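[Discussion] Sanity-checking designs against the backbone

I'm trying to build intuition for which residues belong where. Below is a structure token string of 706 positions. I'd appreciate it if someone posts a full sequence so I can compare it with mine line by line.
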């Protein structure tokens, strides 16, 4: 895959910003031509031009079916896993493998390792997985690039430092002893909700990964490689002196030590299971198989995410399903739907994001003045309405509400797992676009809103998929080292819910808003920022929190919010932008530090706009950064990773973010100039304000870019 060079701005302009500010430029452009000083005084990329170019670019990116979808760009591990799987399955296409190898080489760092986010250091799992994949593909270990990779892997601790799921994949190839892979007992599905720790207390995504892995754990379908391949050279103390036992806590009485002892008991029970006399194993296996097959229905693979899809494919084959079985063929097809292939490279996405991308694009276009009746917005709204999920999915186990089921997902199809964040974003989009069938739109909006509100957790926050999925004891089990066992409530999603409620004129004294406010105040960092769970990181969390509070008309001049404003301004870069890298999840000392990006600059700019002063120097400089870094076609460049999957483990670059959020930021600034905030009259919580007048500024008609 050809990598584009990092670009943060266009070549220097011929017009200097010495005596004018973005506000002055915008106002000057709005003046009649005869009142302007001269054409040479007009900036080359003024605000209105930047908005129109961005609108044109986004409209040109819309799919003919009405949706937008950008690529989710991730690290090398997915391609490495797929190469390992193909060798386990015994079906390796040399042409495909050559392309996959090219992709891996393109991501190798100068020191020889592989990282998990752009600009980050080498990471042990990514490095060893890539090294193994290349070795399986026939790259000799004496290749200088392999020698550098080996050195980095050893420096990072080698195979013993890999996480559980990585070790399990090694065990499938006979490269790691099953004895030292933490047991994932399939009987966990039999434990009822009455027990404190049960299957439904795990996060949505962990359930999707663990059910097929539990099946695999039972059968242990190791397929030794031919010709033989080993990783003996990746044990720092030498293969024969290796120590692969799971580390215990130094204190005797801890939950981790308890679960390690329980793991030994599970392994003893495994001996009985292999002999066919485990009392619950047959029943548990059948239930796991049925659970998995049932969730194939209405979904682009198990949970519509790469780990669930790949694990379920291996599990089906471990269960004895032949290669031509319809389930196997369909799962394989869903897996390859995430793939990209060129003449020289192959790579794969972890999932697809059409609902999320479409909602954000529609909001940005509408807020920036595109008329509500624009055909492409109408098309997008109709597509989003078609994607409403009116099915009582897996969320019902943690939230057995009588409210009519509704909600939206991230992907094309994933009916078992609608999520709160996507639902909130879709609601924010739908309320801006009256459709030819307003009754249908209003009914879907009301269903989605009522459903979403039932997910408020005990402490006042909202999480991604489930309600009160926060039992920390689950993080102590030996196979929980993927840092994703729980689905805790977070500031960014909670604030987005407040944004929806604010747009719908819910009063500040509404009980759910009051609980959410308490949660957000408790979550604020000492320096004034907020942690961002689903975007990188404190810039994302702080922006969304401020935007949500502003939407509910919370007084933005209170000291705790001014502290957040001051923090955002304190981390503005010399070039006027903002940037932050994923290393902030490892150590907050790095918060707010990193190369400026279009998406993060947009977030910070929108956060500062909530304080109502368009003349503030930080806003002017941020606006100037976005305008001058825009490409002539209306897009922005961005290589940095600004999306979060699982902190410290998995990150994503949402390729749409670099274009949708800057447009929304420019629109937010323009609305700040044109539409000073008006006091909101308290209304009944069930009141809907969906039928909005078309009061947003409407620039000249926009023609999609060719």
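Best answer:
Here's mine. Compare freely.
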């Amino acid at each position: 895959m050809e990598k584009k060079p990092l670009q943060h701005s266009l070549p220097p302009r011929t017009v200097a910003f010495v005596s004018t500010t973005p506000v002055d430029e915008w106002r000057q452009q709005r003046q009649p031509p005869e009142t302007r000083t001269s054409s040479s005084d007009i900036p080359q990329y003024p605000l209105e031009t930047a908005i129109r170019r961005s609108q044109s670019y986004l409209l040109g990116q819309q799919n003919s079916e009405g949706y937008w979808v950008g690529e989710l760009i991730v690290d090398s591990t997915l391609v490495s896993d797929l190469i390992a799987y193909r060798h386990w399955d015994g079906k390796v296409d040399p042409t495909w493998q050559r392309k996959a190898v090219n992709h891996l080489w393109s991501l190798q760092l100068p020191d020889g390792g592989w990282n998990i986010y752009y600009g980050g250091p080498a990471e042990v799992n990514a490095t060893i997985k890539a090294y193994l994949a290349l070795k399986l593909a026939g790259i000799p270990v004496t290749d200088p690039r392999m020698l550098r990779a080996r050195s980095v892997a050893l420096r990072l601790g080698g195979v013993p430092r890999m996480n559980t799921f990585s070790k399990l994949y090694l065990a499938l190839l006979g490269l790691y002893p099953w004895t030292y892979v933490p047991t994932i007992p399939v009987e966990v599905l039999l434990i009822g909700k009455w027990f404190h720790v049960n299957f439904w207390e795990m996060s949505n995504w962990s359930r999707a990964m663990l059910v097929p892995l539990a099946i695999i754990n039972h059968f242990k379908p190791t397929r030794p490689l031919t010709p033989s391949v080993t990783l003996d050279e990746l044990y720092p103390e030498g293969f024969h002196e290796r120590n692969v036992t799971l580390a215990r806590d130094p204190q005797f009485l801890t939950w981790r030590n308890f679960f390690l002892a329980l793991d030994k008991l599970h392994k003893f029970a495994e001996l009985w299971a292999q002999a066919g006399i485990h009392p619950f194993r047959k029943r548990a296996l059948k239930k796991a198989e049925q659970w998995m097959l049932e969730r194939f229905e209405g979904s682009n693979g198990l949970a519509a995410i790469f780990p669930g899809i790949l694990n379920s494919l291996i599990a089906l084959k471990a269960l004895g399903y032949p290669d031509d079985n319809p389930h196997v063929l369909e799962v394989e097809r869903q897996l390859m739907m995430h793939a990209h292939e060129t003449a020289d490279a192959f790579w794969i996405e972890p999932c697809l994001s059409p609902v999320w991308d479409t909602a954000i694009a529609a909001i940005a276009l509408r807020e920036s003045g595109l008329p509500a009746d624009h055909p492409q917005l109408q098309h997008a709204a109709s597509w989003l309405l078609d994607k409403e999920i009116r099915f009582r999915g897996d969320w019902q186990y943690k939230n057995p509400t009588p409210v009519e089921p509704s909600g939206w997902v991230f992907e094309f199809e994933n009916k078992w797992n609608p999520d709160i964040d996507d639902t909130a974003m879709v609601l924010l989009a739908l309320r801006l676009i009256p459709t030819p069938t307003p009754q249908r739109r209003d009914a879907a909006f009301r269903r989605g809103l009522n459903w979403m509100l039932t997910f408020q957790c005990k402490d006042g926050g909202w999480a991604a998929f489930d309600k009160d999925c926060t039992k920390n004891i689950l993080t102590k089990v030996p196979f929980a080292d993927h840092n994703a066992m729980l689905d805790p409530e977070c500031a960014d999603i909670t604030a987005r819910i407040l944004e929806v409620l604010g747009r719908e004129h819910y009063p500040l004294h509404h009980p759910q808003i009051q609980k959410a406010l308490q949660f957000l105040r408790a979550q604020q960092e000492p320096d004034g920022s907020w942690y961002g769970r689903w975007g990188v990181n404190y810039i994302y969390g702080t922006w969304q929190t401020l935007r949500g509070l502003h939407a509910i008309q919370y007084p933005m001049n209170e000291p705790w919010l001014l502290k957040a404003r001051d923090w955002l301004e304190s981390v503005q870069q010399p070039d006027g932008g903002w940037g932050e890298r994923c290393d902030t999840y490892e150590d907050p000392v790095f918060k707010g530090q990193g190369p400026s990006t279009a998406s993060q600059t947009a977030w910070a700019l929108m956060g500062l706009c909530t304080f109502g002063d368009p003349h503030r120097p930080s806003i002017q400089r941020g606006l100037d950064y976005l305008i001058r870094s825009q490409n002539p076609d209306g897009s922005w460049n961005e290589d940095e990773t600004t999306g979060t999957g699982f902190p410290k483990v998995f990150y994503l670059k949402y390729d749409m973010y670099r274009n949708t959020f800057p447009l929304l930021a420019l629109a937010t600034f323009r609305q700040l100039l044109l539409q000073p905030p008006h006091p909101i009259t308290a209304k009944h919580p069930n009141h809907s304000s969906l039928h909005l007048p078309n009061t947003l500024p409407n620039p000249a008609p926009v023609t999609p870019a060719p």
